[in-house]
Amino acid sequence: MATGARAEWDRLRRVVLHRPGIEMFFGLLEPYSSLYERAFSRFKARYEHENLEYTLKREFGVEVILLKQTLLEDADRDPRIRATLMSLARAALEFSGDPLTAALAREDFEKNADKLDSGHFFNILLLNPGIELAPGRAAGSIRLDIIEHQPLSNLYFMRDQQVMTDRGIVISRMAKSQRARETDITRIFWDVTGENVVGQIQAPGTLEGGDFIPMGDFALIGVGDRTNIEGATQLMASGMGFPEVAVVHQPTDPLIPGGRGDPMVHMHLDTFFNVAGEGLAIGAEFLLKRALVDIYHRQGSGEYRCRGGSCSLHDYLREKGFEIIGITLLEQMAYASNILCIRDRTILSVESDHIAGSVLSTLQQKADRDPSRYGSLLARAEEDYRKLKFEGQFFPHKKEIYQHGIDAYPISLQNLTGGYGGAHCMTCTLERG
C-alpha cells in the first residue's frame, strides 16, 4: 500500500490513531503545563475517541490503525520488536535515592523483565517514571516514591509526530519538551509497520505535522511557535516533490495588544486554516490576511529556492483560485478549521457551538488574570457568540457550507478538544488517493 498524501482533498484511505490512556490522567493533573487548553472528563474523552474511530471505519470506510494495539500485538509476535521496546524502557526508567537500594531495584527489574508483558514497557515510555528509594523507619522497610517525568499526555494528537508528504513520512522533531519523546514511540511504529520513511528532522530544526498541508500542485508549511524555518527547510530538502511550497509565517493576533501574542491560540497552521475540497478553503480571514507567505520553487536539482517578496496567505490562496469560507474568532478558537477532509467536499468537523461555552470560560479566566492582554480577545469572542447564536450560523451549520455543496459530518469532541485540537490533529494520515 502506498504511503503519502498529494492533496488534502484526495480520498482518505488509511489513518493511525492513538486512544489516550493513563497518560491523559497525568496530563489532567495540571492541564496548562501539559499543553492542554482546559480540564475535561477523561472518561468522556475516551468515549469520544472510540466514536471517532467508529465513524472513520463504519461511516467512511477508512482503515484505522491503533498505535498501541498494533505495536503490542507485533511485539508479542516478534521478539526483536519486544527487545526494542524493552531497550527503550530500560533507558527511560530511572532508579535513584539510596545507592544500594536503587542498584538492587534495577537488578530486580532486569531479572524480571522477561516476565513482564510488552504493555508494561510501552507504559514506561508513555509515563517516563522515576523511582526513588530510601530506607524506611522500620527495620527492613523501604520508602518508595514514583515521579512521572513529563508523561506523553499529548500522544493522541497523532498528526504532529510526523509529516505525510507526497513521498512518504518525515519524522518530526517536536518543539516542546512535553512532547519531545513522542517520536521515540512512533519511530518504532514506522519500523514495525514498514511504512515509507523518507526523512527525519534534526536539531536545530523543529517540525510538527499540524503545520503541513498538501495542496496538489503545491504545499503549505507553517512556521512559528512549533515549526521553525530550519525544520521547514529540512522538510523541503528531505522529503517532498511539490513544484511549489509556500512557507506561512504564524500571524500575530490583532486583538492582543503590543505584539504580545498567544501562540497557543493558533499554534499550528491547521488551527486557523484548512481545506474542505479542491479549490475550497476554510479559515479565519483576519488571521489569513496577517499571515505572510514566502514562496519557494523546486529547481531541476531538487533544491527549493525562495523567489523573493511576500504576500498574505489570503492573497496567495485567492491567486491559486481558492474560495475561502470565513469563520469568526470564536469558531476558530472552537476548532472549526481543524476539520478532517475525508474526500473532496466531505468533511468531519466539530460542533463548534458545543465547544464555544468552554472556550469562552477558559478565555474569561485568562482575561481575569491578565485583562490588558486578553480583554479585547474575550470581548470579540463574546460578540461572535451573540451574533452566531442569533443567526444560527455556528460552524459547520453555515449557509456557505451548503452553498458550496459540502457534506459536513459533525462529531462530538467536546472533551478531546480540551487538549487543544480537533479531528485533524488527532489523525495521522497514511494514505490518500
How would you describe the overall organization of this protein?
By secondary structure, this protein is α/β, with parallel strands linked by helices. The chain has one domain: L-arginine/glycine Amidinotransferase, Chain A. It is 36% helix and 23% strand. The protein contains 14 helices and 20 strands. The protein has helices spanning 22-29, 42-59, 67-77, 79-92, 99-112, 118-127, 182-193, 229-238, 285-288, 313-319, 329-333, 352-369, 371-391, 399-403, and strands spanning 12-17, 63-66, 94-97, 129-135, 142-148, 162-164, 169-171, 197-200, 212-214, 218-223, 244-249, 273-277, 280-283, 292-298, 304-312, 323-326, 340-343, 346-350, 407-411, 428-432. A hairpin with a 2-residue loop joins strand 12 (273-277) and strand 13 (280-283). Helix 3 crosses helix 7. 44% of the residues are buried.
